[in-house]
Every structure is written in structure tokens, then in C-alpha cells.
Amino acid sequence: MKAETPRPTGSGFGEAIMIPVRLAMGLIDAPLRWVQRKLGLGGMAAFFLLPNMLIFGIFVLLPFFINFAYSMTGGTALFLDDRTFVGTDQYVRLFDCSNYLDPNSCTEDTFWTAVGNTAWFVVLQVTLMILFSLVTALILNRELMARSFWRAVFFFPVLLSPVVVGLIWKWILQRQGLLNFALYGFGFQPYTWLNDRNWAFAAAVGVSIWAHMGFYTLILLAGLQAIPKDLYEAAEMDGTRPARAFWRITLPLLMPNLLVVIVLVLIRAVQIFDEVYVLTGGGPGTSTLYLTQYIYETGFATQLRNPGLAAAASILMGVVLIVLTLIQLGLGRSSEKNGSRK
Amino acid sequence: MTKTGTMLAAFAVGLLTSTAAMAGDVRIMWYSDGVEGEVLKDLLDRFMKENPGINVILDNVSYSVVREQLPVQLEAGNGPDIARVTNLKAQSQHWLDLRPLVADAAYWDANFGDQADWMRPDGSTQISGFMTQITIAGGFANKTLFDQAGVAIPGKDATWDDWAKAAKQVAESQQVPFPMALDRSGHRLSGPNLSFGANYIGADGKPAPLDKGSKAFLEKFVGWIADGTMSKDVWVSAAGSTYRAAADDFINGQLVYYYSGSWQIPNFSTKIGSNFDWVATGSPCGPANCTGMTGGAGLVAVKYTKNPKEVAKVMDYLAREDIVKEFSERTLFLPAHKGVLAKGLDFKTDDPQAKAALAEFIDASKTLSDLARKLPGWHWSDTVYGALVTRVSQAAAGEMPLQEAVTRIDADIAAKVKDSGL
């Protein structure tokens, strides 16, 4: 006689919970089995991708094409139906310059001023952001007293809304702000930092670094902590100096994280708007007018609005962002290849 | 249906109704310069007690929302049921015609008729709403600073140059950072432009290129910013046509002479208190006249409302003579209502400075030029104002010479007229 297999025993409460769970699993399982039978394994992958593709299509791709359609129209009306088709006129208007290095020679001079400002901002901000984030991550990766506290301190500004960041720094830098108050206390004359072209530009770069550096530091810190300690111990036993260890061990192994950070910083720098808009409003004059503010003002804030011109400018900005992303993908791939060769 | 099913159905209905507009709801988009939002809330609470079937929702927003977001909502056929706006004429195609809906259209024509054209499409007779206040641009002087410096406050016929000279003397003597400031606004800049003989309106009714009058004042103005007579903070502190006021500088005693307008009176009365004495001075004179600019904020019904009858009822209530009188007296605003003006107002303030300032602005309304009265109802006013602000601030920041700024202003306006297809 065959012995009866003992049934797993469990508490009555556990069994009671498992019943609805099994029911729910069965409900989910049944349609999935049906899809797999009908579409096969490849079809299953497409089935799982479908919700994501739908959301991406509706909220990213469709607006992109609608925006492109807007860029081919003129007038002040909002609905495409009420707008007149003008072909590439808006793009021609944006590129109508006798000398591209001199914004004043362009029909849309503020667009080219914004392009120049954005390019300069990107170069400065990306370089400094990477440098500061890396140095901060290297310091926070060491055995510091109250290390968690310092990490929180550097991450804190990331939690703030960009508008709050802009307002805080405006209260510090404006004529009757905290900085001037402190300077006055030390016997210096107050200075209108945000009315000076160079200082306003520096403030825009600095505030943007202050606000976002914590996020990138965190990514780099995660990368640093993933580097095996024994590599450093081996290097130390071989008498390698810290600087050489940094160039030969830290930097190459941190490169994947660094690439991600570079691309994220680049994209964010090209899209700079919120905190600078609150801080300087694009001034003094147009010295901190960036591309996103130009698009916003042209499309929404000025009398009369020109949605077509704003759409054309945003398409151009999108192209720049796509090129930057492709460069990153290319760099990422070549970095992976080099890594696998080693 | 099971008990759980009933509860789920009730929850779903609750969710749906909580986001949808209810029949009888009237939503007002409102911005405040001073205390008028609180006064309006009080008046609307009374209205809702009298009319329990109508729920009025007051959305207090910033002025920039009204300037930048409302136009987009209107273009999309959305928006509130009623809105308080300053750009009345250019958006008039979105306003509801209240003529067939209000209780007595003749009352509206008789009392608000003078400004009715500011807020309706050209050539129409529609009633779009009424002005919650009439404003007049003009100056304010910090009397205490003048007294301490021993400089006499310039008189009624004083020119812009007289004011600049006196304000500079006071600022130097009292170690105040700014002698003068003028709001970063095309409307504000237009008062002195007009007093220098400017005319924005061409023979065809469309914008004309800037003339000698405008150029003459703009040259003076940019020069004053460069030499520190006029506050640099206000005009170079933003790009584009963003609005900036210097009210805080005046309230903080950092400014000798501030050119703004009558809507600042309640603000100054509340915030300056007894810190220093101030006076309203009307508009300084130019070679052509001594005009300021008129304008104001209108309360208009939006034609995309789903509850036009309820909207008309709210508008009828707010336009009632006793309500307009109370609103104006409590907010210290100059009303547009003819009957209220004729019977006189007893402004609810113990501040003699505020009362004197209001009287000064009523007096200043008598010297307004015809063009100043016409511009609020001109379709292209805001287009001209926007171009003026953008380019003059670039010239003030030293980015381009004034001559180039003037050329750019003309080109910007011409491009916008072309874009509009009108």
C-alpha cells in the first residue's frame, strides 16, 4: 500500500489569505495563456510592450508630430484647423541671418541670442557640474565622520522645487538681499549682482549646479562604491600613488556612470528654464535668456503669441537633444567595446 | 445589487461629480493688486446666501496667470466663466454677450457705456462686462524724503526734467539708491510718450512706426537709466515683456519718485502706514501735454461658459450700484459706474494720504489726452506695449543703441500684425 503524501500544513489564516491570491493569479494567468497560445512567445513580448508603447505614442510621439505640424503653420490661432499652412517659413524666419555669429544680424535676433546663451551655459554648466559632482562623490566616498549627514546635505537641494530654488537665491542675490546685507556688515558697498550681465550669468550657472549637483553626486557615489576595494589594496601594495590610482582605476571603472551623468546633465542644461526664469527673468537685458524661455515667451507669454515660431524653435531644440543622445549612445557602445577588449 | 456594489457605484459617482462642473457653478478667475480679492469674496458670500442655487467659486491667481495662461485657455475654448482682465479688446472675441441675459441692459449702457467699447469686438454693441476699476497712471513722491532734503516737491505743471532734477537732488542728499522708477510696462511708458507727442495709431487704424514724440521720451528714459536717475533694477531685471513693478522699493523708502498708478493707493496705505509721508502727484508734463494713461481691469463673462444665465445673474449683482459703491469704497478703487461717480464716494480709510491721493488721481483724469482715452479700446495696444518693453529694456541694459531698439520695435510690431492676418 502506497503511503499517502503528507499535505503541507499551515495555519488556517495563511490558507485563507492564499485562496484569493490563487484566484487572482488564475484570473491574470488565464488571458496570458490565451495570448501566448494565439500569438506565440514573440507575440507575448509585443503584448507586454503594448501599454508602454501606447503611453509613449500618445504622450511623446503624437505631441512631437503635432508640434511639427504647428511649426509648418502661421497665425495666432491655437487650433491647427484655424491656422494657415506656411511650409518651412517659420524655419526660414529663424535662420534668416546675414551673420550667424552676430544675433543682431538675424530677423529673430532674440532666438539667436538665446541659442548663444544656451550654448555658453551648456559648456560652462556641464563642465563645472561634472567636476563638482565627481569631487563631491570622491570626498563622500571616503571614511568621513557623519558621512550620511553630509550626503543628505548635498542631496537636499534636489528635493526643492526649481521655483523655490530660484526664489531662495533671488532673496540672497538681489540688491537688498542677504549677500549684500552680509557684505555691508563687513564694510563693503552693496552690489546689484543680478543687474550685472556677467554676475547674472554666473549666478544662473552656479544656482543650477547647486540645485542639481546632489542627484549626480549620488549616481557617481553608487558607481564608486561598486568598485572593488581589493583593486585599490593591490595598487597600494604595488606602491601606486593616489592620483595614478584615480586615473587608472577609479576613472575607467566609473566611466559608465560618468557617461550617464554627462548625458543627463547635458540634456538638463539645454532645457534650462525654471530656476533661472524665477531668478533673473532672462535679464539683465537678454543675458540669461535661454532657448526654453524664448520658446515659452514666443508661444505663450507675448502679445500676440506665435505658436508656429515657438514650435519651430522647439523642434530645433529637440534635434539638438536627439544628436546629444545619439552621441551618448555611441560613446556608451565604444566604452563597452573597449571594456570587453580589456 | 449587493451592499459592496452599491458602495462602489456611489464612490464612482462621487469621483466623477467631484471633478465635473456642476450646473449652477460659476467660476471666477481673479487677480488682486491689494485687498480687492477679500472684498469680492465677502460680496460673493452674500450673493450666494441670496441665491442658494448658484455656487460661485473664486480662483485667486497671480496677474501673470491672467496674462499668460488665460489667453491659451480661451483660444482652446475653455477658461473660467468670468475673468478679471486688463487685455480687454484684443481678447474680445472670447467674451459672452450679456445683453440678452442681464436684467436691464439699459442700466448697463447708462452706467458702464463709456468703457463698453474697450471690451467688445469692433462694431458690435455687445455687453461683455464692466470695469471693476478705472486706473490712471501717475506719480507718487516720498514727501518725507523731500522734506528732509529741503527740496520743494515740483508743482502741477512740472515737467519730467523738473522731476528728474528734484528727485536726483533728494536721492543724493538722503543717500537713497534710486531717484526715480517707472514700472516695467508698456502701458506705463506710454503715458510720458504721449505727453511728448507720440501717436501709436496709424491712418489705417493699425500701428504706425514710432514717431518723434516716442523717440524723444525713450531717449531721455534710457539716458536716465544709464546715469542712475531711473532705477535700473526694474527695467533690466527681465527679458521679454515680463511685468515688473517698483512698489516694494517705494514702500521700503528706497525710492524718491515712483511713476505707477492709482491702483497702488490701497497698497501704499496698508503697507507704508505711518513709516513716512507720501503724496500722489499726477503725471509730469512733456512738450505736448501732461497726460497719464487710463486703463483698468474689467470683469468679463466668457462665452464658453456652460451656465450663462447664472453668469449673468452674478454679473448683474456685481454691477449693482450699491455693490459697485461698496466695492470701490472698501478697495479704494476709482469706479467706472456713472451713477456711483455722480453721487460721490466715501472711501473707507482713515488714511488722509490715501484720500488725498485718490482726489489727486480724480483730478488727473481731467488732463488725460484723447489718445490716452482711446488706447485702452485699441486692438493693438498690448502688441505695441510688449514690443516697447522688450526692446527698451535691451537698450537700457546696454545691449543695443536706442536707434536700433526703435527699429526693432517697429519690426516686431509689423511682424505681429502680419502674423495676426488682420
From TrEMBL, chain A:
Q: Which GO terms describe its cellular component?
A: plasma membrane
- ABC transmembrane type-1 domain location: 115-328
One GO BP annotation here? transmembrane transport
Localization in the cell: Cell membrane
State the superkingdom: Bacteria
Q: Which UniProt keywords apply?
A: Cell membrane, Membrane, Transmembrane, Transmembrane helix, Transport
User: What start and end residues bound the annotated signal peptide?
Assistant: none
Q: Which residues cross the membrane?
A: 44-66, 119-140, 152-172, 199-224, 245-267, 309-332
Q: How does the protein's chain sit in the membrane according to the entry?
A: Multi-pass membrane protein
**InterPro entries cross-referenced by the UniProt entry:** ABC_transporter_permease, MetI-like, MetI-like_sf
Keyword Hydrolase in the entry? The reply is no
Which Pfam families does the protein's record reference?
BPD_transp_1
Family, per the entry?
Belongs to the binding-protein-dependent transport system permease family.
Record-given protein name: Putative ABC transporter permease protein YurN
Species of origin: Sinorhizobium fredii (strain USDA 257)
TrEMBL record, chain B:
Q: Where in the cell is it found?
A: Periplasm
Broad class of the protein's primary localization: periplasm
Q: Which GO terms describe its cellular component?
A: periplasmic space
| Signal peptide bounds | 1-23
The subunit field of the Swiss-Prot or TrEMBL record says: The complex is composed of two ATP-binding proteins (UgpC), two transmembrane proteins (UgpA and UgpE) and a solute-binding protein (UgpB).
Give the protein's function.
Part of the ABC transporter complex UgpBAEC involved in sn-glycerol-3-phosphate (G3P) import. Binds G3P.
Recorded protein name is: sn-glycerol-3-phosphate-binding periplasmic protein UgpB
To which species is this protein native? Sinorhizobium fredii (strain USDA 257)
